[in-house]
Amino acid sequence: MQCNDRGAALEAAAREVLETMFFAEPLDQPPAGDAAVERICATVEVHGTCAGRFTACLAEPAARELAEVFLAGEGRPGPAAVADVVLELANMLCGSVLERLEPDALFELAPPAVGPCAHAAAPGRILALTGGTLELYLVGQAVPPASPPGD
Fold first, then answer.
1. How many structural domains comprise the chain?
2. What is the mean pLDDT of the chain?
3. Which residues, 6+ apart, have CB-to-CB distance to 136 below 8 Å?
4. Range of the domain at 48
5. At 81, which CATH number?
6. What is the pTM of this model?
7. Which range is least confidently modeled, 43-52, 78-87, 137-146?
8. Cβ atoms within 10 A of the Cβ of 9, count?
């Protein structure tokens, strides 16, 4: 992935998806006690000319709030429904970020999966929401074209 400012692409994509799909706007400061809450993380593996991994980690209270908005009218979502919404959020964010970074690239997204919230790298962006923070990670690089046989 060639963009020099992945952080700006992560933030722009997150703001757009949060505002259009969840009617949520990031805050200036995270709520108190955010570091101590459980998180739900969803990862999308990217294959093709861009290869890597996109992860969205969301504080559980924020995930629940977003799920309630996204599933409007379906009552209070249970843990499985909240996880499904986080998976969908990760999928939407990943596609939006990749479009910003590599608009002409060919890539395939694996289905998002919920997993542990452990990362070796610092998040590319952290956005504060009313229920806690959304941490965004993007690890990857452009894959060089394959050499023709015999080279």
1. 1
2. 87
3. 10, 11, 14, 54, 55, 56, 57, 93, 97, 123, 124, 125, 126, 127
4. 6-22+38-142
5. 3.40.1550.10
6. 0.87
7. 137-146
8. 23
